[in-house]
Design brief:
Elements lengths: L5 H8 L40 E6 L2 E2 L3 E2 L5 H12 L4 E6 L6 H4 L8 E6 L6 E2 L4 E10 L20 E4 L4 H7 L7 E3 L11 H10 L5 E5 H10 L4 E5 L10 E8 L4 H13 L1 H10 L4 E2 L5 E2 L2
Parallel strand pairs: 1-4, 1-5, 8-9, 8-10
Antiparallel strand pairs: 2-3, 5-12, 6-12, 7-10, 7-11, 7-12, 13-14
Length: 297
């Protein structure tokens, strides 16, 4: 299955039958079971089932640059920071692939207490305050013919071979501007335990001149561009006038019943935002503020 943040699949699931073309990444995730909403007295404060000694993280085992069993993802590093700031002795993981049932089989089953990256406003989890904001981006080699392109609507993209993952939000905007006719569509369902991430494949194809540009989720684009030493321009798609939403506020996801845990995490985010931003920038994540300006430090 495709490797993207867990929230992406959750966001698309509810409307998948109506809006398949414009939706982000995965199929419908099952709703949280009822015991996630009505818990008896447990490990943490006020009857919350949050382990007070170990940070129990719900994560995909092969999902760079987000999480990985090796601990190399930026969400792994953020988990270490959260553990230290909340007095946890260690970090443990419940590994589950980013497929249908991720929330139900991890957070909803009380096997872990936090999903490190989740889009704000999704009702499958309770969101903390956002700790970063990013967007889908246009990536292209530095060249005069595409310098200054800021939207999918730009006529200079007409006739270009643009790589995009099937069923992600940018495909709707590309379809509206007749760019899918010449696009290279990358598969939605891949197993990155045996196949490279589509983000990595797309950047490599661009460097090999198989495609002229790529449109993909910003953190993936930034990370693989840096890893591959690609001299490219990365443009957050924040100026689209019509079509699908391209930017998202990313939070940490917890169970709806864990109010005290959410407040604790909000405090950690507030007091450590500078360090969180430093970690994200070290992975070349394109960060944007509330005015759609790039954050560079």
């Amino acid at each position: 299955m495709p490797k993207h943040p867990a929230w992406v699949g959750d966001m698309i699931g509810r409307d998948a039958l109506k809006l398949r073309v414009v939706l982000p990444i995965l199929g419908t995730l099952a709703l949280l079971p009822s015991n996630a909403h009505a818990q008896s007295a447990g490990l943490g404060a006020a009857g919350e089932l949050v382990d007070p000694d170990i940070l129990r993280v719900c994560a995909d085992p092969s999902n760079m640059p987000f999480t990985d069993k090796s601990g190399e993802g930026f969400e792994n590093k953020l988990a270490e920071l959260v553990a230290a700031k909340t007095g946890r002795k260690s970090v443990s993981y419940t590994w589950f692939p980013t497929i249908t049932g991720f929330v139900r089989n991890t957070l909803g089953a009380n096997r872990c207490d936090i999903i490190m990256g989740y889009a704000q406003g999704d009702e499958l989890v309770q969101n903390t305050n956002a700790y970063y904001r990013s967007a889908y981006v246009l990536v292209h080699p530095k060249s005069k013919d595409m310098e200054g392109v800021e939207t999918i609507e730009d006529s200079r993209l007409t006739g270009k071979t643009i790589g995009v993952v099937e069923s992600t939000p940018p495909t709707a905007n590309m379809a509206a501007n007749k760019l899918l006719r010449t696009a290279k569509i990358y598969p939605l369902a891949v197993d990155t335990r045996v196949t490279p991430s589509m983000g990595e494949v797309m950047i490599k194809d661009m460097l090999a001149h198989k495609i002229d540009a790529a449109v993909l989720w910003g953190p993936m684009a930034g990370y693989y561009a840096k890893e591959l030493g690609a001299d490219v321009t990365i443009v957050p798609l924040v100026k689209e006038k019509t079509g699908s939403r391209m930017s998202y506020r990313i939070t940490m996801g917890v169970r709806p019943s864990d109010q005290e845990w959410k407040r604790t995490l909000n405090r950690v985010i507030r007091e450590n935002q500078a360090e969180i931003t430093r970690i994200l920038l070290s992975y070349n994540v394109p960060l944007i503020d509330e005015h759609d300006n790039l954050i560079t430090q």
